[in-house]
Design brief:
484 residues; alpha+beta; 37% helix; disordered N terminus
């Protein structure tokens, strides 16, 4: 990472002291890319704040930086972090060299992050090469989300996975990449309840539990090398007979639902894999190969069904119909809204629609309301920090993903004195949500008082507060109180 003639050598000033872990490292921890068993190299670590914090958490982490830590240990590591480095390099050729060198130290996953265009705040910046020279004399190259992905993929001749806006994972092993990508679209399903007692089940419940957990996760029976079946076959003769006992005490409907959900999840994954280059069957993890054979018999058939699902996504009328048929969520003239906890319950077409946004942008930190546009191909991620606690939470941030241009844009409402606020929160969540009844009770009380009649007036914080004031009411938690 050398400086360039004619451009101030100010890279050292771009390194900042952070009060907490950097965003790429925190995202990697959340995704379990980094664990306590992972050895990490922070390539271009700046002042080494991430190195110290990870080390204090019991992780093995080394850091190297050409200016602030030139004597740091440079050795191959399972995970290499190239955090906000390429955006401060003035020469395009040197950025390529830096990315490739970081990749050469990577044994498993390279984390690449850079500033995006919507993060540019300084109005006094002047053009410099293909980026900007800030008022402090430092260089910044701002990327678009897809531009950064394309550059990484072309430079390293591989396919990256969007972890978050401006953050990508690059896997050395294509099979591990497929496992990670597929896991993003697999639902966590509920374990069926035991509806009636059976002496044989009660007697051998401990033996049957691993089989229950496997079928809940995969939606199918295990093949011989996937589960220790010694005790099961000793007690029941075969896996099928053992599972027959389970179906007897829980009822068959829930297991049929789990199988259907797993098949849908696979189709969503295969459809979204089209965003890059869909893997050949032999490149898939063994467990996914077995899932596909169990549900679709052949990979070609599964891909054909996934392609048909993806094709139907191109017609917004199909999206509108799916929204009308959704068991939960709020519909407006231009969009459909749902809480993230409700996503597993939505029709597969809507789950794939949202998945397209996530495949492009990655996970949006703090987003808890998903907006699926019905008038244009776009997905918005809305951040309401106090959704559960605040009866009418204020919007803090919106990230919009355009599914045609692949642009990712952000609107920050955190400093607004009059941000949008939410009403009728029970519409966004399923009836299984632990606070659904609390939300619904407040809405009924507000309806009785006529507070929700004029929707054009109550959509913002000021408008809602004025409506409450006119009615001489206030909210106390999720209850209405009279102002004395």
């Amino acid at each position: 990472m050398r400086s360039t003639a004619g451009v101030p050598d100010a890279r050292g000033r771009t390194a900042i002291h952070r009060p907490a872990l950097s965003r790429p490292i925190q995202v990697a921890l959340d995704d379990q890319i980094i664990t306590t068993q992972t050895r990490v190299l922070d390539y271009g670590c700046g002042h080494g704040d991430d190195v110290r914090r990870l080390s204090r958490q019991g992780m093995t982490c080394e850091g190297w930086d050409p200016i602030h830590r030139p004597t740091g240990l440079l050795e191959p590591a399972e995970v290499v972090n190239l955090g906000y480095v390429v955006n401060v390099i003035e020469r395009a050729a040197e950025r390529v060299e830096t990315l490739r060198r970081a990749w050469s130290f990577t044994q498993r996953v390279l984390i690449v992050s850079a500033r995006l265009s919507f993060e540019a705040r300084e109005k006094s910046a002047t053009p410099c090469n293909d980026g900007w020279l800030t008022g402090a004399g430092t260089f910044q190259k701002y990327y678009e989300q897809q531009e950064l992905r394309d550059w990484i993929d072309a430079t390293l001749d591989t396919e990256s996975v969007a972890a978050a806006p401006g953050i990508f994972y690059v896997f050395q092993d294509a099979t591990e990449r497929q496992s990670f990508f597929a896991a993003r679209f697999m639902r966590r399903t509920r374990i069926p309840r035991i509806e009636r007692s059976a002496e044989l089940f009660d007697k051998h419940q401990a033996v049957l539990t691993p089989l229950i957990e496997f079928v809940v996760e995969r939606g199918r029976l295990p093949v011989p090398d996937e589960l220790d079946r010694t005790e099961l076959t000793e007690q029941f003769g075969s896996i099928k007979r053992a599972f027959g006992i389970i179906r007897t005490v829980t009822g068959p409907d829930e297991w049929d639902r789990i199988g259907d959900e797993r098949a849908e999840d696979l189709l969503v994954y295969l459809a979204l894999a089209k965003f890059g280059q869909r893997a050949k069957f032999g490149q898939l993890p063994t467990v996914l190969q077995r899932d596909i054979r169990a549900f679709f018999t052949a990979y070609k058939r599964a891909c054909t069904l996934a392609d048909a699902l993806l094709l139907s996504l191109g017609n917004l009328a199909n999206i509108e119909r799916a929204c009308r048929g959704a068991p939960t969520g709020k519909r407006t003239r231009t969009a459909f809204y749902a809480h993230v906890s409700a996503l597993p319950e939505l029709p597969s077409l809507l789950r794939m629609y949202e998945g397209c946004g996530r495949a492009i942008a990655g996970t949006i930190d703090g987003a808890n309301i998903i907006k699926l546009w019905t008038t244009r191909p776009a997905v918005s991620y809305l951040v309401y920090p106090e959704f559960d606690r605040d009866p009418h939470p204020a919007l803090q941030e919106v990230v919009v993903v355009d599914l045609q241009s692949f642009d990712v844009t952000r609107r920050d409402h955190s400093a607004s004195l009059n941000p949008p606020v939410l009403h009728r929160k029970e519409l966004f969540v399923t009836t299984f949500h632990p606070r659904h009844k609390v939300f619904a009770r407040l809405t009924k009380a507000e309806e009785r008082k006529g507070l929700l009649t004029h929707t054009d007036e109550i959509g913002t914080k000021e408008g809602w507060e004025q409506t409450l004031a006119r009615a001489r009411l206030r909210t106390d938690g999720h209850r209405l109180r009279r102002i004395a």
